[in-house]
Specification:
The protein has about 375 residues and is mainly alpha-helical. It has 3 domains: about 45 residues; about 90 residues, Tyrosine recombinase, N-terminal domain (DNA polymerase, domain 1); about 190 residues, hpI Integrase, Chain A, CATH 1.10.443.10. Helix content is about 50%, strand content about 10%. The chain contains 14 helices and 8 strands. It has a 3-stranded antiparallel beta sheet with strand order 1-2-3, covered by helices on one side. Strands 4-5-8 form a 3-stranded antiparallel beta sheet, with no helix packed on it. Helix 2 runs antiparallel to helix 3, helix 6 runs antiparallel to helix 7 and helix 7 packs antiparallel against helix 9. It is elongated, with a radius of gyration of 30 Å. The N and C termini lie far apart (about 95 Å).
Length: about 375
Protein backbone atom coordinates (compact mmCIF):
# COMPACT_ATOMS: atom_id res chain seq x y z
CA UNK A 1 0.00 0.00 0.00
CA UNK A 2 1.30 3.43 -0.89
CA UNK A 3 2.56 5.71 1.88
CA UNK A 4 0.22 8.52 2.92
CA UNK A 5 1.25 11.62 4.83
CA UNK A 6 -0.78 14.36 6.42
CA UNK A 7 0.43 17.92 6.31
CA UNK A 8 3.08 18.56 8.99
CA UNK A 9 2.94 14.98 10.29
CA UNK A 10 6.39 13.94 9.15
CA UNK A 11 6.91 10.32 8.04
CA UNK A 12 3.51 8.82 8.99
CA UNK A 13 2.43 5.96 6.75
CA UNK A 14 0.17 2.94 6.72
CA UNK A 15 1.73 -0.51 6.80
CA UNK A 16 0.58 -3.56 4.87
CA UNK A 17 -0.98 -4.98 8.04
CA UNK A 18 -3.24 -1.91 8.30
CA UNK A 19 -1.47 -0.28 11.22
CA UNK A 20 0.04 3.17 11.01
CA UNK A 21 3.71 3.96 11.67
CA UNK A 22 5.88 6.99 12.21
CA UNK A 23 9.63 7.46 12.36
CA UNK A 24 11.86 10.12 13.89
CA UNK A 25 15.40 10.58 12.64
CA UNK A 26 17.90 10.63 15.50
CA UNK A 27 21.21 12.43 15.77
CA UNK A 28 23.09 9.28 14.78
CA UNK A 29 20.93 9.13 11.60
CA UNK A 30 19.13 6.06 12.87
CA UNK A 31 15.34 6.07 13.07
CA UNK A 32 13.04 5.47 16.02
CA UNK A 33 9.63 4.02 15.06
CA UNK A 34 6.17 4.39 16.58
CA UNK A 35 3.10 2.31 15.77
CA UNK A 36 -0.65 2.61 16.29
CA UNK A 37 -4.03 1.41 15.04
CA UNK A 38 -5.04 4.85 13.75
CA UNK A 39 -3.34 7.80 12.09
CA UNK A 40 -4.37 10.05 15.02
CA UNK A 41 -2.77 7.71 17.55
CA UNK A 42 0.53 7.71 15.71
CA UNK A 43 0.29 11.44 15.11
CA UNK A 44 0.09 12.00 18.87
CA UNK A 45 3.06 9.69 19.51
CA UNK A 46 5.08 11.50 16.88
CA UNK A 47 4.15 14.88 18.33
CA UNK A 48 5.33 13.80 21.79
CA UNK A 49 8.52 12.28 20.38
CA UNK A 50 9.41 15.42 18.42
CA UNK A 51 8.87 17.52 21.54
CA UNK A 52 11.03 15.17 23.64
CA UNK A 53 13.71 15.24 20.96
CA UNK A 54 13.71 19.03 21.07
CA UNK A 55 13.93 18.98 24.88
CA UNK A 56 16.69 16.37 24.83
CA UNK A 57 14.61 13.80 26.77
CA UNK A 58 13.78 11.36 23.99
CA UNK A 59 14.83 7.82 24.93
CA UNK A 60 16.85 6.48 22.03
CA UNK A 61 18.38 3.36 23.55
CA UNK A 62 17.26 -0.18 22.74
CA UNK A 63 14.99 -2.00 25.19
CA UNK A 64 16.71 -3.98 27.93
CA UNK A 65 15.50 -5.86 30.97
CA UNK A 66 15.98 -4.58 34.48
CA UNK A 67 18.11 -7.65 35.14
CA UNK A 68 20.52 -6.66 32.37
CA UNK A 69 20.62 -3.03 33.48
CA UNK A 70 21.02 -3.70 37.22
CA UNK A 71 23.76 -6.30 36.77
CA UNK A 72 25.70 -3.90 34.58
CA UNK A 73 25.04 -0.97 36.92
CA UNK A 74 26.13 -2.66 40.14
CA UNK A 75 29.40 -3.97 38.65
CA UNK A 76 30.37 -1.08 36.38
CA UNK A 77 29.19 1.83 38.53
CA UNK A 78 28.94 0.69 42.15
CA UNK A 79 31.96 -1.63 42.39
CA UNK A 80 34.60 0.92 41.26
CA UNK A 81 33.07 4.02 42.87
CA UNK A 82 31.64 2.96 46.25
CA UNK A 83 33.32 1.90 49.47
CA UNK A 84 33.56 -1.88 49.65
CA UNK A 85 31.03 -2.01 52.50
CA UNK A 86 28.47 0.01 50.53
CA UNK A 87 29.12 -1.92 47.32
CA UNK A 88 28.47 -5.26 49.05
CA UNK A 89 25.19 -3.91 50.48
CA UNK A 90 24.07 -2.59 47.07
CA UNK A 91 24.99 -5.84 45.35
CA UNK A 92 23.01 -7.82 47.91
CA UNK A 93 19.92 -5.65 47.37
CA UNK A 94 20.20 -5.97 43.59
CA UNK A 95 20.57 -9.76 43.54
CA UNK A 96 18.34 -10.72 46.47
CA UNK A 97 15.50 -8.23 46.07
CA UNK A 98 15.37 -6.16 42.88
CA UNK A 99 16.27 -8.73 40.22
CA UNK A 100 13.96 -11.45 41.63
CA UNK A 101 11.09 -8.93 41.64
CA UNK A 102 11.71 -6.91 38.47
CA UNK A 103 14.46 -8.65 36.52
CA UNK A 104 12.11 -9.93 33.81
CA UNK A 105 10.53 -6.50 33.21
CA UNK A 106 11.75 -4.08 30.57
CA UNK A 107 13.59 -1.14 32.10
CA UNK A 108 11.34 1.26 30.20
CA UNK A 109 8.15 -0.46 31.40
CA UNK A 110 8.74 -0.32 35.15
CA UNK A 111 5.95 1.70 36.78
CA UNK A 112 5.45 3.36 40.18
CA UNK A 113 2.52 1.00 40.78
CA UNK A 114 4.80 -2.03 40.39
CA UNK A 115 7.32 -0.62 42.85
CA UNK A 116 4.66 0.36 45.38
CA UNK A 117 3.15 -3.14 45.28
CA UNK A 118 6.63 -4.64 45.73
CA UNK A 119 7.25 -2.56 48.85
CA UNK A 120 3.86 -3.59 50.26
CA UNK A 121 4.74 -7.24 49.67
CA UNK A 122 8.09 -6.86 51.42
CA UNK A 123 6.40 -5.34 54.47
CA UNK A 124 3.81 -8.14 54.51
CA UNK A 125 6.67 -10.66 54.43
CA UNK A 126 8.00 -9.13 57.63
CA UNK A 127 10.72 -6.86 56.28
CA UNK A 128 11.33 -3.81 58.44
CA UNK A 129 10.52 -0.34 57.06
CA UNK A 130 14.20 0.53 57.29
CA UNK A 131 15.10 -2.44 55.08
CA UNK A 132 12.48 -1.44 52.52
CA UNK A 133 13.78 2.12 52.69
CA UNK A 134 17.30 0.96 51.86
CA UNK A 135 16.03 -1.14 48.93
CA UNK A 136 14.25 1.97 47.70
CA UNK A 137 17.43 4.05 48.00
CA UNK A 138 19.35 1.57 45.84
CA UNK A 139 16.61 1.39 43.19
CA UNK A 140 16.21 5.16 43.10
CA UNK A 141 19.96 5.66 42.63
CA UNK A 142 20.10 3.05 39.86
CA UNK A 143 17.16 4.58 37.98
CA UNK A 144 18.69 8.02 38.45
CA UNK A 145 21.71 6.84 36.49
CA UNK A 146 19.39 5.30 33.88
CA UNK A 147 17.80 8.72 33.36
CA UNK A 148 21.20 10.43 33.03
CA UNK A 149 22.26 7.85 30.47
CA UNK A 150 19.12 8.41 28.40
CA UNK A 151 17.80 4.89 28.97
CA UNK A 152 14.51 6.08 30.49
CA UNK A 153 12.70 9.41 30.52
CA UNK A 154 11.98 9.63 34.25
CA UNK A 155 12.92 8.06 37.56
CA UNK A 156 9.72 6.25 38.55
CA UNK A 157 11.13 5.43 41.99
CA UNK A 158 10.76 9.12 42.87
CA UNK A 159 7.00 8.76 42.48
CA UNK A 160 6.66 6.06 45.15
CA UNK A 161 5.80 6.52 48.82
CA UNK A 162 8.18 4.68 51.12
CA UNK A 163 7.18 3.38 54.58
CA UNK A 164 7.88 5.57 57.58
CA UNK A 165 10.80 4.38 59.67
CA UNK A 166 10.32 4.59 63.42
CA UNK A 167 13.56 5.48 65.16
CA UNK A 168 14.66 2.79 67.58
CA UNK A 169 14.40 3.89 71.19
CA UNK A 170 17.95 3.88 72.49
CA UNK A 171 18.79 2.42 75.90
CA UNK A 172 20.54 5.45 77.33
CA UNK A 173 22.62 5.32 80.48
CA UNK A 174 22.26 7.96 83.16
CA UNK A 175 25.40 9.64 84.46
CA UNK A 176 25.22 7.43 87.57
CA UNK A 177 24.88 4.24 85.51
CA UNK A 178 27.77 5.31 83.30
CA UNK A 179 29.98 5.86 86.34
CA UNK A 180 29.04 2.43 87.67
CA UNK A 181 29.88 0.81 84.33
CA UNK A 182 33.31 2.45 84.22
CA UNK A 183 34.06 1.53 87.83
CA UNK A 184 33.44 -2.18 87.20
CA UNK A 185 35.15 -2.07 83.77
CA UNK A 186 38.31 -0.68 85.41
CA UNK A 187 39.51 -4.23 86.15
CA UNK A 188 38.60 -5.59 82.70
CA UNK A 189 40.07 -5.48 79.20
CA UNK A 190 37.32 -3.00 78.25
CA UNK A 191 38.54 -0.32 80.68
CA UNK A 192 40.02 2.27 78.31
CA UNK A 193 37.68 1.34 75.46
CA UNK A 194 34.55 2.11 77.50
CA UNK A 195 36.05 5.27 78.97
CA UNK A 196 36.70 6.45 75.41
CA UNK A 197 33.23 5.48 74.19
CA UNK A 198 31.38 7.20 77.04
CA UNK A 199 33.42 10.41 77.02
CA UNK A 200 33.72 10.95 73.25
CA UNK A 201 30.72 9.19 71.71
CA UNK A 202 32.99 7.55 69.12
CA UNK A 203 31.45 4.88 66.92
CA UNK A 204 32.41 1.24 67.41
CA UNK A 205 34.16 1.04 64.03
CA UNK A 206 36.12 4.22 64.77
CA UNK A 207 37.30 2.86 68.12
CA UNK A 208 38.38 -0.53 66.79
CA UNK A 209 40.27 1.04 63.86
CA UNK A 210 42.17 3.47 66.10
CA UNK A 211 45.98 3.33 65.92
CA UNK A 212 48.48 4.57 68.49
CA UNK A 213 49.78 6.89 65.77
CA UNK A 214 46.37 8.60 65.91
CA UNK A 215 46.72 9.30 69.64
CA UNK A 216 48.73 12.12 71.21
CA UNK A 217 48.76 11.58 74.97
CA UNK A 218 51.20 14.43 75.54
CA UNK A 219 48.79 17.04 74.21
CA UNK A 220 45.67 15.04 75.10
CA UNK A 221 44.04 14.51 71.71
CA UNK A 222 43.33 11.90 69.08
CA UNK A 223 42.50 11.96 65.38
CA UNK A 224 39.79 9.85 63.75
CA UNK A 225 40.98 8.90 60.28
CA UNK A 226 39.44 5.48 59.58
CA UNK A 227 36.74 3.03 60.55
CA UNK A 228 36.41 -0.75 60.54
CA UNK A 229 33.56 -3.18 59.99
CA UNK A 230 32.91 -6.78 59.03
CA UNK A 231 31.86 -7.32 55.42
CA UNK A 232 30.42 -10.60 54.21
CA UNK A 233 32.91 -12.38 51.96
CA UNK A 234 35.70 -9.93 52.81
CA UNK A 235 36.14 -10.28 56.58
CA UNK A 236 37.22 -7.28 58.66
CA UNK A 237 37.61 -4.26 56.39
CA UNK A 238 39.12 -0.86 57.17
CA UNK A 239 38.06 2.26 55.30
CA UNK A 240 38.98 5.90 55.44
CA UNK A 241 36.46 7.92 57.45
CA UNK A 242 33.64 8.61 55.01
CA UNK A 243 33.00 12.34 55.38
CA UNK A 244 34.91 15.46 56.31
CA UNK A 245 32.94 15.74 59.56
CA UNK A 246 33.75 12.09 60.39
CA UNK A 247 37.47 12.80 60.02
CA UNK A 248 37.87 14.84 63.14
CA UNK A 249 40.11 15.74 66.07
CA UNK A 250 38.93 15.02 69.59
CA UNK A 251 40.39 16.68 72.67
CA UNK A 252 40.72 14.07 75.41
CA UNK A 253 39.78 14.60 79.03
CA UNK A 254 42.28 13.75 81.75
CA UNK A 255 40.31 10.61 82.63
CA UNK A 256 40.76 9.29 79.08
CA UNK A 257 44.49 10.09 79.04
CA UNK A 258 44.98 8.19 82.30
CA UNK A 259 42.92 5.23 81.02
CA UNK A 260 45.02 5.15 77.84
CA UNK A 261 48.26 5.13 79.83
CA UNK A 262 47.01 2.17 81.90
CA UNK A 263 45.93 0.41 78.72
CA UNK A 264 49.25 1.08 76.98
CA UNK A 265 51.19 -0.39 79.90
CA UNK A 266 48.98 -3.49 79.96
CA UNK A 267 49.39 -3.92 76.21
CA UNK A 268 53.17 -3.90 76.55
CA UNK A 269 52.88 -6.75 79.05
CA UNK A 270 50.69 -8.72 76.63
CA UNK A 271 53.23 -8.19 73.83
CA UNK A 272 55.96 -9.72 75.97
CA UNK A 273 53.74 -12.67 76.93
CA UNK A 274 52.71 -13.40 73.32
CA UNK A 275 56.23 -12.96 71.98
CA UNK A 276 56.90 -13.63 68.30
CA UNK A 277 53.22 -14.31 67.64
CA UNK A 278 52.29 -10.67 68.27
CA UNK A 279 51.19 -8.70 65.17
CA UNK A 280 52.64 -5.26 65.74
CA UNK A 281 50.13 -3.20 63.76
CA UNK A 282 49.92 -0.37 66.26
CA UNK A 283 46.23 -0.99 66.98
CA UNK A 284 45.03 0.60 70.21
CA UNK A 285 42.35 -2.03 70.91
CA UNK A 286 43.56 -5.23 69.19
CA UNK A 287 42.62 -8.87 69.59
CA UNK A 288 44.78 -11.18 71.69
CA UNK A 289 47.49 -11.38 68.96
CA UNK A 290 47.64 -7.69 68.04
CA UNK A 291 45.41 -7.84 64.95
CA UNK A 292 42.02 -6.25 64.36
CA UNK A 293 39.53 -7.09 67.08
CA UNK A 294 36.28 -8.56 65.76
CA UNK A 295 33.36 -6.22 66.59
CA UNK A 296 31.20 -9.23 67.43
CA UNK A 297 33.72 -10.56 69.95
CA UNK A 298 34.11 -7.18 71.56
CA UNK A 299 30.34 -6.76 71.86
CA UNK A 300 29.95 -10.20 73.44
CA UNK A 301 32.44 -9.14 76.11
CA UNK A 302 30.51 -5.89 76.57
CA UNK A 303 27.21 -7.80 76.98
CA UNK A 304 28.80 -10.05 79.59
CA UNK A 305 29.96 -6.99 81.54
CA UNK A 306 26.46 -5.47 81.49
CA UNK A 307 25.00 -8.67 82.96
CA UNK A 308 27.70 -8.74 85.62
CA UNK A 309 26.79 -5.21 86.71
CA UNK A 310 23.05 -5.72 86.42
CA UNK A 311 22.53 -2.99 83.84
CA UNK A 312 19.84 -3.48 81.15
CA UNK A 313 20.84 -4.95 77.78
CA UNK A 314 21.85 -2.30 75.29
CA UNK A 315 23.51 -1.96 71.90
CA UNK A 316 27.12 -0.81 71.99
CA UNK A 317 26.04 2.14 69.83
CA UNK A 318 23.84 3.24 72.74
CA UNK A 319 27.02 4.34 74.51
CA UNK A 320 27.31 7.00 71.82
CA UNK A 321 23.75 8.12 72.54
CA UNK A 322 24.50 8.02 76.26
CA UNK A 323 27.53 10.27 75.85
CA UNK A 324 25.56 12.83 73.83
CA UNK A 325 22.57 12.75 76.18
CA UNK A 326 24.70 13.18 79.31
CA UNK A 327 26.57 16.12 77.76
CA UNK A 328 23.42 17.87 76.54
CA UNK A 329 21.67 17.35 79.87
CA UNK A 330 24.72 18.87 81.58
CA UNK A 331 24.29 22.01 79.49
CA UNK A 332 27.00 21.51 76.88
CA UNK A 333 26.10 23.47 73.73
CA UNK A 334 24.64 21.26 70.96
CA UNK A 335 27.17 22.66 68.47
CA UNK A 336 30.02 21.25 70.55
CA UNK A 337 28.23 17.91 70.81
CA UNK A 338 27.75 17.90 67.03
CA UNK A 339 31.47 18.38 66.44
CA UNK A 340 32.36 15.71 68.99
CA UNK A 341 30.06 13.12 67.40
CA UNK A 342 31.07 13.99 63.83
CA UNK A 343 27.57 14.86 62.61
CA UNK A 344 27.58 16.73 59.31
CA UNK A 345 25.18 19.37 60.65
CA UNK A 346 23.72 20.52 63.94
CA UNK A 347 20.27 19.71 62.55
CA UNK A 348 21.07 16.01 62.80
CA UNK A 349 22.21 16.38 66.40
CA UNK A 350 19.12 18.35 67.39
CA UNK A 351 16.83 15.87 65.65
CA UNK A 352 18.40 12.72 67.14
CA UNK A 353 18.57 14.13 70.67
CA UNK A 354 15.41 16.20 70.74
CA UNK A 355 14.22 14.10 73.69
CA UNK A 356 16.83 15.84 75.86
CA UNK A 357 15.80 19.34 74.86
CA UNK A 358 12.54 19.70 76.85
CA UNK A 359 14.48 19.67 80.13
CA UNK A 360 16.91 22.19 78.68
CA UNK A 361 13.98 24.39 77.63
CA UNK A 362 12.63 24.17 81.16
CA UNK A 363 15.96 25.47 82.44
CA UNK A 364 15.58 28.42 80.06
CA UNK A 365 12.06 29.09 81.30
CA UNK A 366 13.21 28.92 84.94
CA UNK A 367 16.03 31.37 84.21
CA UNK A 368 13.55 33.78 82.59
CA UNK A 369 11.44 33.60 85.74
CA UNK A 370 14.49 34.43 87.82
CA UNK A 371 15.29 37.41 85.61
CA UNK A 372 11.84 38.87 85.05
CA UNK A 373 9.51 37.16 87.50
Amino acid sequence: MAKRRGHGEGSIYQRKDGRYAAAVTLENRKRKYFYGETRREVQEKLKVALHEQQQGTLVTSPQQSLKQFLEQWVEQVCEPTLRITTYVQYRSVVHHHLIPAFGHISLQKLTPEMIQAFYRKKLDEGKKPGTVGFIHAVLRRALGDAVRWGLVMRNVAKLVTIPHVERREAQVLTAEQAKKLLEVARSSSLDALLVLALTTGMRRGEILALRWSDVDLVHGMLFIRRTMTRVGGYGLVENEAKTKSSRRRIVLSAVVVEAFKRHQAQQEQVKVAVGAGWQDKGIVFPDKDGGLWSPDRMVRRFDKLLKQIGLPHMHFHDLRHSAATILLAAGVHPKKVQELLGHSSITITMDVYSHVLPSMQQDVADEMDNLFG
